Amino acid sequence: MWLAILACFVALVLTLYWRYVPALQDFLRLRRELIEAVPSPEEYHWLAGHAIPDPAKYRGKIVEWSSKLRRVYLQMVAVYPIVNVNHPDTISDALRGSPPKPAYLYNFMADFLGDGLVSSSGKKWTRDRHLLTKTFKPERLRSFMPIYKSACATMVDKWMERQN
User: Which residues of 37-61 are buried (b: 16+ CB within 10 A; e: fewer)?
Assistant: First the structure.
């Protein structure tokens, strides 16, 4: 009995290892490449990143880093790299193409997500994005304002009833 349970446990561990360790290695490799490729405003702590102890100074630090590194810079939030883009040309380049979809992030959720805008890339992503852009034009969204207003009014009324 115990031997069967142990065998199942070992099989589970090995399955998880073979399935997720390559994804973790890809993630760490991509993270390392990103950290090496994008300039960072200053040295950062290996665990805390660019933690700023005083929250009041955070905005000033961001403004300082943005003026120091004009186009793009890397900010470490704990152990996670965040790329901050400051220049309109860089932003337009980033928005023009389809964003890269890291395999380690989407492969294990492929059955759940399907092949939609979130998980697709390339020409399919561009086509789907153009279809969605036409759907969410400001003129179309303005026509829904009366519906949004009435729904919000109803919600506020219900909150007021619960409060009293």
Answer: ebebbeebeeeebbeeeeeeeeeee
Work out the burial of residue 145: count CB atoms within 10 Å of its CB; fewer than 13 is exposed, 13-18 middle, 19 or more buried.
exposed
Euclidean distance between CA atoms 107 and 112, whole angstroms = 10
d(C-alpha 151, C-alpha 82), whole Å: 37
Q: Using one digit for the tens of pLDDT, what is the confidence trace for 102-160? A: 666 666 666 777 777 777 777 888 888 888 888 888 888 888 899 999 999 999 999 99
Question: Can you say whether residue 96 is alpha, beta or left, with left for phi > 0 and alpha for psi between -120 and 50 degrees?
Answer: alpha
Closest by Cα among 133, 129, 105, 99 to 116: 129
Contact 74, 39 (CB under 8 A): yes
- DSSP-derived letter for residue 107 is G
Residue 53 CA to residue 48 CA, distance in Å, equals 10
Which of 94, 106, 85 is CA-nearest to residue 39?
Answer: 85
